[in-house]
Fold this sequence. Notes:
By secondary structure, the protein is of the alpha+beta class. The chain contains 4 helices and 4 strands, in the order βββααβαα.
Amino acid sequence: MEVRYLGFDQDRERRVYRFDVTAKGELRRELEVTADIALFQTHRVAIQDGPSLCARKLTSDLETHVEGVHTLTTEDFRLHAEARVAAEAKKAEMRQNASRRPKPEAPRDSLWRRGPV
């Protein structure tokens, strides 16, 4: 299945994201996912994350055969925010561990550096 973002329409306090969905052996469909703008603010999710969040929601809904209206819920935003926090914590841990690595040993004397014998 291929899900392609087409754009969005602003309707007062919500955005309606439009997607073109093509599945093997099926006709192309244009589907929408609605998101309440207040939920972006409540969960501190950037509005720029809207299309990818909606694409994941739509893909998940279609894979589980959910038809009809597709809407980002508080739970969708909460899970996204938790995943973002976990990813940031992992990056911070990796940076911290990188600074704890032992310094490389100084090169041992080599026959090439000793000079004449």
